[in-house]
Amino acid sequence: MAKRIQFSQTGGPDVLEYADMTAEEPKAGEVRVRNHAVGLNFIDIYFRTGLYPAPGLPSGLGTEGAGIVDAVGEGVTHLKEGDRVAYAQGPLGAYAELYVLPAEKAVKLPDAIEFETAAACMLKGLTVQYLLRQTYRLPKGETILFHAAAGGVGSIACQWAKALGVKLIGTVSSPEKAELAIKNGAWATIDYTKENVVERVRELTKGDMVPVVYDSVGKDTWETSLDCLQKRGLMVSFGNASGPVENVNIGILNQKGALYVTRPSLNGYADTRKRLETMSNELFEMLESGKIKVDIAQRYPLEKAGEAQEALASRKTTGSTVLVPSMQQDTQATQDAGRSQDVQAPAEEAPAAQDAGTSQDHASKDSQDQDPRA
Ligand SMILES: NC(=O)c1ccc[n+]([C@@H]2O[C@H](COP(=O)([O-])OP(=O)(O)OC[C@H]3O[C@@H](n4cnc5c(N)ncnc54)[C@H](OP(=O)(O)O)[C@@H]3O)[C@@H](O)[C@H]2O)c1
């Protein structure tokens, strides 16, 4: 019987259960994917803890992965059985061996891109695509501040910024993370555990400060980030790793220099099939050209999803983490024999408003209609 991760109550990692699942047949407009690898994202933690409510309990978890289409619902024309696909915006339930999602949310994966790479970067890489290429169109030579530069999203952002000729100043919490961010193309790093972020930004920019800050940390960094901006600069608040930004008096934007703020999500950008394809193609080109290499620094068997989430939440991870379903572990181990990463180590818009798992009322409605966050 196929397996999935589910939770029946919100809480710590121990609420995650590794359970049997009934493999649903895809309905009209849906496909079923046999997952080869599943992506781990901070947003999965938000759903598990209840910061973002799941549509019902018990619920599946996860929205990102890659695998092979093994069943196709009526009316689906762009995918067929046997196609290699990747996705980042499915309904809750990607932490599973078999996963049903709306076909329009899956894209064909070029042969050159491995399943694990795709699972490790669809959500994170498409997020970087919109952040650096759409939310603020960065000209060559611009200097930006990007928090959590050694994390999953951050590692891709460092490489993409470098490829654009943009000078990325990345915040990190340790010398090891600083080294990694620089290796990935960050222009400079700030270890916020030892340095004053605002003063360092002032120093690095010779007093100019930055036109845009990308902040996924949330509550803890909100005001610091605003203080790093030039007049009329843009604050891009795209995550809540330390908790959500709440109770903001909008007047602070005036006090700190006529600033702009946006709170974007992937689902706000990849909101049509055409836009998803355009963004995915750009990401795939960056991967195929070698301008971006996805660092899968942690791999866990699917059943250890709780451990994986704990490592992510406690800042122990770097780069991306993937979960490998048990059906794939043997194959994967063989494929990975020549690669350097550990099989298991530790040393995020939005998704899904419905559960893709075994529930009888599984709906095919696009999740982002119901939950615009990521
Ligand atoms: N809006 C969107 O479209 C979207 C899409 C994807 C992801 N995201 C957001 O992007 C962020 C990064 O996601 P990710 O999956 O790639 O995670 P990640 O960056 O690999 O991990 C989070 C990192 O945040 C830093 N951090 C700072 N304060 C923290 C705290 N109090 N608790 C935990 N971590 C803290 C840590 O790096 P240091 O130790 O270096 O500080 C940690 O490693 C998340 O906030 C996620 O929600 C948003």
UniProtKB/TrEMBL annotation:
<feature type="compositionally biased region" description="Basic and acidic residues">
    <location>
        <begin position="362"/>
        <end position="374"/>
    </location>
</feature>
<dbReference type="InterPro" id="IPR020843">
    <property type="entry name" value="ER"/>
</dbReference>
<dbReference type="InterPro" id="IPR047618">
    <property type="entry name" value="QOR-like"/>
</dbReference>
<feature type="domain" description="Enoyl reductase (ER)">
    <location>
        <begin position="11"/>
        <end position="323"/>
    </location>
</feature>
<dbReference type="InterPro" id="IPR002364">
    <property type="entry name" value="Quin_OxRdtase/zeta-crystal_CS"/>
</dbReference>
<keyword id="KW-0560">Oxidoreductase</keyword>
<dbReference type="GO" id="GO:0008270">
    <property type="term" value="F:zinc ion binding"/>
</dbReference>
<dbReference type="InterPro" id="IPR013149">
    <property type="entry name" value="ADH-like_C"/>
</dbReference>
<feature type="region of interest" description="Disordered">
    <location>
        <begin position="311"/>
        <end position="374"/>
    </location>
</feature>
<dbReference type="Pfam" id="PF08240">
    <property type="entry name" value="ADH_N"/>
</dbReference>
<dbReference type="GO" id="GO:0070402">
    <property type="term" value="F:NADPH binding"/>
</dbReference>
<dbReference type="GO" id="GO:0035925">
    <property type="term" value="F:mRNA 3'-UTR AU-rich region binding"/>
</dbReference>
<protein>
    <recommendedName>
        <fullName>NADPH:quinone reductase</fullName>
        <ecNumber>1.6.5.5</ecNumber>
    </recommendedName>
</protein>
<dbReference type="GO" id="GO:0003960">
    <property type="term" value="F:quinone reductase (NADPH) activity"/>
</dbReference>
<comment type="similarity">
    <text>Belongs to the zinc-containing alcohol dehydrogenase family. Quinone oxidoreductase subfamily.</text>
</comment>
<keyword id="KW-0521">NADP</keyword>
<dbReference type="InterPro" id="IPR011032">
    <property type="entry name" value="GroES-like_sf"/>
</dbReference>
<dbReference type="Pfam" id="PF00107">
    <property type="entry name" value="ADH_zinc_N"/>
</dbReference>
<feature type="compositionally biased region" description="Low complexity">
    <location>
        <begin position="344"/>
        <end position="354"/>
    </location>
</feature>
<dbReference type="InterPro" id="IPR013154">
    <property type="entry name" value="ADH-like_N"/>
</dbReference>
<feature type="compositionally biased region" description="Polar residues">
    <location>
        <begin position="315"/>
        <end position="343"/>
    </location>
</feature>
<dbReference type="InterPro" id="IPR036291">
    <property type="entry name" value="NAD(P)-bd_dom_sf"/>
</dbReference>
<dbReference type="GO" id="GO:0005829">
    <property type="term" value="C:cytosol"/>
</dbReference>
